[in-house]
Amino acid sequence: MSIEVVPYSAEWEGRFRIVEAQLSDALTGLAVEAIEHVGSTAVPGLAAKPILDIDVIVPGDGTRPVISALEGIGYRHRGSLGLDGREALHAPDDGIPRHVYVCVAGTLHVRNHLAVRDALRRDTSLRDRYGAIKTALAADPGMDIDSYLAGKSDVLQEVLAASDLTEAEKDEIYRLNTGG
Fold it and tell me: What is the C-alpha separation between 112 and 174, in angstroms, rounded?
């Protein structure tokens, strides 16, 4: 399975707004702290896999009602996929490719997503280096997702260096990304 990385598209923000409105409607009255566009498609100018990443951030006891509400509009719960405080959902096939996660506020997963997004939005030279690495990795026809993630880890550590994450948290993210 090859990895597809494409140049930035201004359409990604509009697609996020459509999905955000759908999610907001489905989650009316539930404890949702934020719906965040994260990942590379959330960074203007950054090459990315053309799939939105969206975190629905909830308080610690809010995951089950949110998952149930999303299942009611066609999402399928996939479980934590090995990451505590994050529940993955398979989105309905409505023409907007996306990964949607219900995440507990304050967890390392959420803080990592926001820190990477915000650092890349602030620093265009780092953004461009990250984009170049992603594009080069994806150009390898034998690239698999695990190797792709591991190949990005060094530059992601640079991105995280400017964040408020602790050294232990940065080490944990590196370990998760490299499978080590």
Answer: 11
E strands within 80-133?
86-90, 98-104
End-to-end CA distance of the chain: 22
Kind of pairing between the strands at 52-58 and 98-104? parallel
Contact 3, 143 (CB under 8 A): yes
Contact predicate 180/146, CB 8 Å: no
Cα angle value 163/149/67 (rounded, 5°):
80
Alpha-carbon span 132 to 164, nearest angstrom: 25
10 Å Cβ neighbour count for 142? Answer: 7
The helix (run of H) or strand (run of E) holding residue 79 is strand 76-79
At which residue do the structure tokens 């610690």 appear? 60
Which ranges of 53-107 would DSSP assign to H, the alpha helix?
A: 63-71
Note the pLDDT tens digit of each residue in 94-137. Answer: 999 999 999 999 999 899 999 999 999 999 999 999 999 999 99
Amino acid (one-letter) located at 114: L
Query: For the whole model, what pTM was predicted?
Result: 0.91
Task: Provide the residue type at 110 as one letter.
Answer: V
Beta bridge pairs of residue 113: none
